[in-house]
Amino acid sequence: MSLARSFGAVVSGVAGQIVVVEVDHSQGLPTVGVVGLPDASVNEARHRVRTALGNQNLKWPKGRVTISLSPAEVRKQGAGLDLAIAMGVLGVTGQIPATALTTTVFVGELGLDGSIRQVPGALPATVAAAQAGFTSVVVPKDNNLHCSVVPGIKVVSYSTLTHVIQGLVHGAESLLPDVDSPIEPEFILDLSDVLGQQQARWALEIAAIGSHNMLMVGAPGVGKTLLAERLPGILPKLDDHESLEVTSIHAIAGTLAGRGSITVPPFEAPHHSSSLSAIVGSVHGQRVNPGSITKAHHGVLFLDEAPEFARNVVEVLRQPLESGQIVLNRSHWRGVLPARFQLLMAANPCPCGNSSPETRQECTCPSITRRNYAQRLSGPLLDRMDINISMPHVASTELGDNSATVALRVKEARERTRWRLQDSPWQVNALVPASQLLAKFQPTVGGQELLDAFRRKSGGLRGAHRILRVAWSIADLAGHQQPDRNDIAMAIHLRERPGMLTA
Ligand SMILES: [Zn+2]
Known about the structure:
Elements: E1 2-12, E2 15-26, E3 32-35, H1 40-43, H2 45-55, E4 64-70, H3 82-92, E5 104-106, E6 109-110, E7 116-117, H4 122-131, E8 136-138, H5 141-147, E9 154-156, H6 161-170, H7 198-210, E10 214-217, H8 224-228, H9 240-253, E11 267-268, H10 276-280, E12 281-284, E13 287-290, H11 292-295, E14 300-303, H12 311-315, H13 318-323, E15 325-329, E16 334-338, E17 342-347, H14 367-375, H15 379-383, E18 387-390, H16 403-420, H17 434-440, H18 445-458, H19 461-478, H20 485-495, H21 499-502
Parallel strand pairs: 3-4, 5-8, 8-9, 10-17, 10-18, 11-14, 14-17
Antiparallel strand pairs: 1-2, 2-4, 6-7, 12-13, 15-16
């Protein structure tokens, strides 16, 4: 009896998980068994691996072969374990020394000809391998580009099983991705494309500074979508950790396309006909498909024509808006996916879009239709919208600052925020809990008087906290030490709901 051990990785949710592959070979009838919660695709791996070895003129052991995958409680899904299983088989038959398998994680699907094929979870697998202290990871060539951004681990690629052996044993050159493989630059839409709308632009800047949720109301064509799409371009770039997380999510979702790694905050704009599972994520077999809210992690979720979304779709956002994550509880898989996003919503003033006073056309909606339309956005959700903006029709051709200029102001304001929050786990004003806010981050006396008056009038303590957070962002932009009366007044004004929503 002999035994060999190799390391692979699977994806659980959107995170990588190291899997220990043990291959046991003993005398007996020629059988192959796989143990340790494998799904059908992993079970089929034995046939793929065996055929791939044969086609590369490598030996499959005679007799009884048992392949054990651990930890046993982790579901193993997909073909990404093929390569690790093949390495275990090569180890148990002495075709590769066991010492070559101790510090490397192997990720990849095998073609029947022995070629190594791309898998969706290579990036999170690489992150997990680095975290677990492995010195190198072998990934498919087409995954190399993304995986190479992970710090602290050597990422190598080979085109076939034979090349892997040559590389591990003889130090043969690994395969680097083609230097001319197309990496699309991350495209940033510029704010200078938006004419007029100075107040809405200013509100967007405040929203960017504090990561506040924002609702824009205006007739079709006033530029709500144009403005929303430009938010990522004024937000700070993702830091290395955020970039890895976001790139992993989009690699798993299959939405990375030609991008190398994602460094600009993602912008997700699901259509109003989107299903609940498209928004929160779904599970197919063992495979988790991240929804819009997870793809918007560390970025922006934009709901255009928000009242047109199904009520349950909009309501489900309340939990991730508070916790920054979504709990998926399905029969095959349960777990938590990250979903820390900034919410932008846009709405027409009524179904026909003409009920705002600036439009020259008449609103044709019956009043009952108008009221129902507004009521499709629930009170609890509207309470979480810190900034509400009415966007009028403008004939203005006035140009504002471009995105680079605004991004610089946002960055400087956020640096003031972070300096103030340096001993805390929060980095933006919207996330500071109320207890901290009240204990450490009060406004000036004049500001407090105004805030108290607001609270008495509206009766809302939560509302007052939300106003104070926005006021801090206004103060951070202006470089004030504390929000003053004026900053509070502006924050109260930004929170006022547009006419359609109070009718
Ligand atoms: Zn109307």
